[in-house]
Design goal:
- Keywords: Signal.
- Pfam families: C1-set (PF07654), ig (PF00047).
- InterPro entries: Ig-like_dom, Ig-like_dom_sf, Ig-like_fold, Ig_C1-set, Immunoglobulin_dom.
- This protein is mainly beta and 261 residues long.
- The protein folds into 2 domains: 130 residues, Immunoglobulin-like; 115 residues, Sandwich (Immunoglobulin-like), CATH 2.60.40.10.
- It is 7% helix and 48% strand.
- The chain is built from 1 helix and 18 strands.
- The strands form 4 sheets. Strands 1, 2, 3, 5, 6, 7, 9 and 10 form an 8-stranded mixed β-sheet that branches.
- The longest helix has 17 residues.
- It is elongated, with a radius of gyration of 25 Å.
- The N terminus is likely disordered.
Length: 261
């Protein structure tokens, strides 16, 4: 399992009437990167301290304001039937009977697991609400290619990424800083929620030195990236510039028709 978890909790207390309502908010998003199908459970913890030792205690988890899981102290936890394949209800987060099944253990994550999560802890006299944000990055079936074409005294680079989530940003980088023009196509959303994108760059290559070109795929807020590299020694293809222009026109046409795949 390869994933990055970023988790920071800041506590604040709000007063509502006579009772005390504690609210904790994650300032940073928790990222879950899917690179293969061998995923362990992903745990969202509900960290709280109770002033009330009353027998009554419930913990409910929500995703985008829809109830996904609930636990009543003294009973077995239960995911909502609609989400039974998304939650491991056997996961014990603590030996403390007040927190035994308080965490949300996500299994079989998909892009639909992305969202705003909320843990609500209730006793007879207090309510604690903890907010979390989870962003899934799915690159399991990605295709990332960087091609190089020679057109007279110019070099054209084409980077394409297919079948990724969420919306990617493509950047082409030249070691010699000789990129003179960049044209972006996309990203375009497929019917299944995944994205495709293409970036074209024109490089003014006037020397015989070996040059390395890099295409970097980024996702907003995520500190790591995915990269492919091509060098001038890779054997550029010499093509008729009219074909390249036709390909660019076709890409633009498909984008306007919203059927880019």
């Amino acid at each position: 399992m390869k994933f990055l978890l970023v988790f920071v909790v800041v506590a604040s207390v709000l007063y509502n009437g006579v009772g005390c309502r504690a609210v904790r908010v994650d300032e940073e998003t928790k990222f879950l990167v899917l690179e293969d199908d061998n995923m362990d459970r992903t745990v969202l913890d509900c960290n709280y301290d109770l002033n009330d030792t009353d027998v009554f205690l419930t913990v409910k988890w929500f995703r985008n304001d829809r109830t996904i899981y609930q636990w009543i102290r003294g009973s077995q936890p239960a995911p909502i039937p609609e989400f039974k394949n998304d939650v491991d209800s056997t996961y014990e987060s603590s030996k403390d009977p007040n927190k035994q099944y308080s965490s949300l253990a996500l299994i079989n994550p998909t892009i639909s697991s992305t969202g705003d999560y909320k843990c609500v802890v209730q006793t007879r006299s207090e309510t604690i609400t903890i907010h979390k944000s989870l962003q899934v990055i799915d690159v399991r079936n990605r295709t990332l290619n960087l091609s190089r074409y020679k057109i007279q005294n110019e070099t054209q680079l084409e980077c394409t990424v297919l079948n990724v989530f969420p919306k990617p940003t493509l950047t082409i980088i030249s070691d010699d800083d000789d990129i003179i023009k960049v044209v972006n196509h996309g990203p375009y959303e497929q019917g299944d929620g995944y994205y495709n994108a293409t970036t074209l760059a024109v490089v003014q290559d006037n020397d015989d030195d070996a040059d390395a070109y890099k295409c970097v795929v980024n996702f907003e807020g995520y500190s790591q990236n995915f990269t492919t590299v091509i060098t001038s020694g890779s054997g550029p293809r010499y093509v008729d510039y009219r074909i390249v222009l036709l390909n660019t026109f076709v890409l633009s046409l498909l984008a306007n028709l919203n059927i880019f795949n």
